[in-house]
Specification:
Blueprint: E1 2-15, H1 19-23, E2 26-36, H2 39-44, H3 53-66, E3 68-69, H4 72-83, E4 91-99, E5 107-115
Parallel strand pairs: 1-3
Antiparallel strand pairs: 1-2, 2-4, 4-5
């Protein structure tokens, strides 16, 4: 299976359990790796036969910007479900990171892997 990926995509969203986190949107970093078959797109040089990573990036940013989550766990699971709606994607690896969330740490986050179930 072939891979398409985006690393450290910056999105702005509301994420956190503390009142100050729920009032002010913050930067959230997303990395995603998708398993798909790129052979048809490569053979025909056709963007419509593959995952357009610019479109994927915009949809991830829009999703995070329009949804509110208390935990990274809830955000990452919902985002994985949203991404897997694309029938070209067989499975994904997803990382969501929250910069500056814990004192003395650059980053905290969660990683998951999910596979299409249908």
């Amino acid at each position: 299976m072939d891979k398409i990926f985006i690393r450290n995509l910056k999105a702005i969203g509301t994420l956190g359990i503390h009142p100050h986190e729920q009032k002010t949107p913050r930067e959230i970093l997303v990395s995603v790796e998708l398993s798909t078959d790129i052979s048809r797109a490569a053979e025909n040089d056709d963007i419509h036969a593959t995952i357009n990573y610019a479109t994927l990036a915009r949809s991830i940013q829009a999703y995070i910007n329009t949804h509110v989550f208390l935990t990274i766990e809830a955000l990452i699971e919902a985002l994985a479900v949203e991404i897997l709606h694309n029938p070209l994607i067989e499975e994904l690896w997803l990382r969501v990171e929250k910069p500056g969330a814990v004192p003395n740490a650059d980053m905290v986050g969660v990683e998951i892997s999910r596979r299409r179930t249908d």
